[in-house]
Amino acid sequence: MMGRWPRPLKSKNGGYSVTIPNILTTLRLLLVPVFAWCYFHVHPLVGLLIYALACLTDVCDGYIARKYNQISRFGQYADPVADKLMVVTVLACLTLSGAIHWIFVLIIAVKEMLMILGAAILYLKGNRKLIFPAKPIGKAATFGLFIAILAAFFRQWIAPWHTVLMAAAVALSLAAFFYYTVHNIREARQTP
Predict the structure, then answer these.
(1) Cα(128)–Cα(120) distance, rounded to whole angstroms?
(2) Spatial separation of the C-alpha atoms in residues 89 and 91, rounded to whole Å
(3) Is the pLDDT of residue 181 over 50?
(4) Which of 35, 45, 80, 96 keeps 20 to 30 A from 71, CA to CA?
(5) Could you tell me what percentage of the chain is helix, strand and coil, using 3-state DSSP and rounding each to the nearest 5?
């Protein structure tokens, strides 16, 4: 039937449901090691194409999930994990190849671990809402990091601006982290 989106196939135990967004998220998880392998064993620009594909799946899965009411528990947990794994992997590869300073990947990796730890603490304290809607500062930080990563791939033509962009993106990511931390602590205190 034209104009209708395929219905999700639910699992019998209520876990993973086969939806287009969940397939895209799973693909993004699988692209993490593919990116690293291509970056080092094929060519960094092939790695960049893999990263761009992963970013495209991220945009598409969220849009499709919201538009066609295919939001799932799996997607709510796996989507941010896939994003974090991909970004940290890309930054680690760029660091290992000398494209960016190691401090950038360290800051982002620690920030991501603290976010996961914070979500786990909230969960253990009884706040079952681990997924918080994206705010403009979070979206800006994600976009800034994408631009900085893209610049790092073309550093030979734009140096030292790739480092300036990466520093700005990391600073924006830290600002978003502090914003979300304060916001989520307030929300957790208000939850009965």
Answers:
(1) 9
(2) 5
(3) yes
(4) 35
(5) 75, 0, 25
